[in-house]
Amino acid sequence: MFDLIATSAMGLEALVAKEVRDLGYECAVENGRISYKGDASAIVRSNLWLRTADRIRIKIGEFKATTFDELFEKTKALPWENFLPEDAEFPVTGKSVKSKLFSVSDCQAIVKKAIVERMRKHYKKSGWFDENGPLFKIEVALHKDVALLTIDASGSGLHKRGYRAGQGEAPLKETLAAALVMLTNWTPDKPFVDPFCGSGTIPIEAALIGQNIAPGFNREFVSEGWHWIPEKVWEEARLETEDLANYDQPLDITGTDIDHRMVKIAEENAFEAGLGDLIHFKQMQVRDFTTTKEYGVIVGNPPYGERLGDKDAVQKMYAEMGAALAPLDTWSVYILTSNEQFEQFYGKPATKKRKLFNGFIRTDYYQYWGKRPPRTK
User: Fold this and answer.
1) Total number of domains in the chain
2) Which of 156, 169, 222, 283 might form a disulfide with 260, Cβ 3.0–4.6 angstroms?
3) Do 279 and 204 form a contact (C-beta atoms < 8 A)?
4) Residue range 223-250, pLDDT digits in tens
């Protein structure tokens, strides 16, 4: 069994934890990380299935370290040979917060040296290692004098789904886009609209969720090159993603944007994801949005008006959006913005707000819940 950590953006920990539990693993939640135990198949399935996690790490050890000697000896005492083959390429990165050992470059060098010592003894080698084999990215993270040593099992961050051929100037991370959809009351039988679709990330993530398609089905992971995860485990996990996908689920998903170039990029990205026929994109301003459909869900990440000069235009657009969406009393509306006056421009207080971070920007997710459909007898 391995000690696994799914890392998470601030504010999304509860969602990541729910996803981990849905995969069948008990977990503990801390700031920015969800810890659980699992076998090799858990590493593989977590990489393939977790929509809102940033990456999967394997915890090799955690200990107090206030001196470089302590860091060296305790790192050397860990069973690195269980993970790293003789030809492993193992760069070490680091970070240090509120710790006596604050020089990150020194910590990295010491950890590297300690692992080399351990490996030399195990592989009976006197010189340096060639490091021309599979990649094991090691991180030493010091927080309040506690060192956490992990190996990254994802490679590129999990937000890199493999479908983004093009993007706009402020793209939303796929992991956050998936979270925005999962924090709504949307189900695949309801209409779904993103009136600020940009490069199409939110509608694409909604379609993946709607058909239960694993977000990692279309990409590779660094741990695919590791000898101690048998190829069969990867094959079985990928077969599971095929078995569980519901490609027959009909979807009614629309993305609109004021910029025709973004609409074209969104279409290309949707085709790249294999969802080109499922999502309808068109050029439109939010103030022109009308629909006769009922009980739908709108999710939007509109411009925030952070730049001077954009402010007035954005406030006007929020007001126009409020006016256009006001008649849709059966629809639920969810808007992500850092603009703290959003409710007053939109013209209505939110049913609920949730704090989220879009990159380093603190934002609120304003939720307006529509009427519930009448109960069918």
Assistant:
1) 2
2) 283
3) yes
4) 999 999 999 999 999 999 999 999 999 9
Q: Domain limits at 131?
A: 1-150
Same-domain status, 127 and 259: no
* 318 and 285 within one domain: yes
The answer as to whether 50 is a domain residue is yes
Do 55 and 182 fall within a single domain?
no
pLDDT in tens, 337-375: 999 999 999 999 999 999 999 988 999 999 999 998 888
Q: Which CATH number is 109's domain given? A: 3.30.2130.30
130, 202: one domain: no
Beta partners for residue 93, in sequence order: 139
Residue-wise pLDDT for 23-59, tens only, equals: 999 999 999 999 999 999 999 999 999 999 999 999 9
